[in-house]
Amino acid sequence: MTFIDYYKILGIDKKATISDIKKAYRKLARKYHPDLNPNDADAKKNFQQINEANEVLSDPEKRKKYDKYGKDWEHAEQFENAKQHQEQSSDFGGYKYSRAQSGTDFSDFFESMFGGSANAGRSRQVKFRGEDYNAQLQLNLTDAYRTHTQTLTVNGRNIRITIPAGIENGQTIKIAGHGGPGINGGPNGDLYLTFSIADHPGFKRLGNDLYTQADLELYTAVLGGEITLKTLNGKVRLKVKPETQNGGRVKLKGKGFPVYKKDGQFGDLYITYTVKIPTSLTEKQKELFIELSKL
Amino acid sequence: MQTGNLIAVNEFCKSYKIEISFISTLQKAGLIEFTTIEETIFVDAGQLPQLEKIVRFYYDMDINLEGIETITYLLQRIINLQNEVETLKNKLRFYEG
């Protein structure tokens, strides 16, 4: 655990007034606040530091303690504990009301020096919405193909969620009320789940369409025939036209990926043929090919 | 008083210790929508995150209403662009994979 220079974080000197602190905090908050930087982890981290610095320096009691012990905060904890026993109170009075970003994390340094959460000792009972949680969920393509339920554990709570078929890679869904608990009776935050869908060895997905490859025997490609093809939803029999070219593509309408939240609607399945040239030909086969080439 | 998914504006204001007139200003600027039932003004619970965000802009970051309007518009553009990037990434993955 390292010492954090809150003055440096806010870009102010030790003589800064409350007004200077407020001004510096607001300036930096306008730059790094998560509300202004959606999906930006770096900005969130920066804002947490700024918020923590503001939390300490804008509170006269906390600032006094911080200034007094500074780098020796570890001894400050022992000292404060002894003091608390004497006074039977650990409350930091006069905490200035602030609508800080709900659920902001505080550093180990902060926790060590001031103990517990920043909300302790707030003199005004303001309701705060709980923190929004972000999580990533890995699925494979076959999972994403079907509507299914999964049980997740978020902060020790089991949540059973239904994942609709057709969810897209990178898509985020909101699960209302499953974020951090509200403060002072405020509503819970939400859980934002972002899906990461792993590649499939046999199929590629583009939107709602699926792409796959099928090997064709030379004779089937030349003369036509029928092949059996695996799809994500079982096997299908497919007629192959005579004189099918290598790299030729056919479309199976409605055999692609389910359309998200549109029951019964599917994209298409595109099949690209790879014609396999026979190897290890017998003498007889070679003769026949030569004969064919002369026709 | 709560009606289904609606939250009484006066309760919201009381909870956040803000003036009701501020919410009226937001409504006039088209930043949020009201529903009035028997002279009580409500906001839809779905608008709560947006409303809380605006409150933070105004009170914590000292951004005026014109700034909030601009930010709201630009944030929506950022989110749309992020979605577009995600779609394009998936396309790129398809062609590169």
Structure description:
The complex is a heterodimer of chains A (295) and B (97). Chain A is an alpha+beta fold and 295 residues long. Chain A is 31% helix and 24% strand. In chain A, strands 6-7-11-10 form a four-stranded mixed β-sheet. Chain A has a three-stranded mixed β-sheet with strand order 1-5-4. A two-stranded antiparallel sheet of chain A has the order 2-3. In chain A, helix 2 runs antiparallel to helix 3 and helix 5 runs parallel beside helix 6. About 9% of the residues of chain A have low confidence. Chain B is α+β, with helices and mostly antiparallel strands and 97 residues long. Chain B is 64% helix and 13% strand. Chain B has four helices and four strands; from the N terminus they run ββααββαα.
H/E series of chain B, N to C?
EEHHEEHH
Q: How many alpha or pi helices of chain A?
A: 9
Query: What would you call the shape of chain B?
Result: elongated
How do the strands line up in the largest sheet of chain A?
A: 6-7-11-10
Q: How much is the average pLDDT of chain A?
A: 83
End-to-end separation of chain B? 55 Å
Q: Report strand order across the widest sheet of chain B.
A: 1-2-4-3
Helix share bin of chain A: 25-40%
The CATH superfamily of the largest domain in chain A is known as: DnaJ domain
Number of domains of chain A: 3
Concise account of the structure shown:
The complex is a heterodimer of chains A (295) and B (97). Helix content of chain A is 31%, strand content 24%.
Q: Keywords for this structure?
A:
heterodimer, A: 295 residues, alpha+beta, Helix Hairpins, HSP40/DNAj peptide-binding domain, four-stranded mixed beta sheet, three-stranded mixed beta sheet, 9 helices, 24% strand, elongated, B: 97 residues, Multidrug-efflux Transporter Regulator, Chain: A, Domain 2, four-stranded antiparallel beta sheet, 4 strands, 64% helix
